[in-house]
Amino acid sequence: MQENYEITIIGRQTVDGETGEIRVDTLGDYVEKGGIKFISYMEYDNDAPYEGRHKILKIDPEGVVTMFTPGTPTRMILEKGKRHNCMYDTGPDCSLWACSHRL
């Protein structure tokens, strides 16, 4: 990875009326192939700062965002107004439903 771009990812979720936010500022890559955009970066955990995980965001022309981590079962699909059953690797694998209202 060349890490030619500064990337900021802000994630918000609302559960039981309470909204939480996470922010990731990192360096990564951006490429567009056939109208599909790819953003890749390394994500580091505060508990293991030297053990990064490669993350890839795929954004198709219709605005559907798929996040995946190579070598893990993680596949999170975010699509405005639609609900998807996703696998999210948080150590012990966790299956969750993701529904996006705004991307």
Tell me what the structure shows:
With 103 residues, the protein is mainly beta. The protein has a domain of 71 residues. The strands form 2 sheets. It has a 6-stranded antiparallel β-sheet with strand order 1-2-3-4-5-6, with no helix packed on it. The protein has a two-stranded antiparallel ribbon with strand order 7-8. The chain is globular, with a radius of gyration of 14 Å. The protein starts with a strand and ends with a strand. The mean pLDDT is 80.
What's the N-to-C terminus distance?
26 Å
| Unreliably modeled segments | none
List SSEs in N-to-C order: EEEEEEEE
Number of strands: 8
Give, in spatial order, the strands making up the sheet with the most strands. Answer: 1-2-3-4-5-6
Classification by helices and strands: mainly beta
Q: Summarize the biggest pleated sheet.
A: 6 strands, antiparallel
Summarize model confidence as the mean pLDDT.
Answer: 80
Strand content: over 45%
Q: Tell me roughly what share of residues is in helical segments.
A: under 10%
Q: Quickly count the helices.
A: 0
What Rg, in angstroms, do the CA atoms define?
Answer: 14 Å
Tell me, briefly, the overall form. Answer: globular
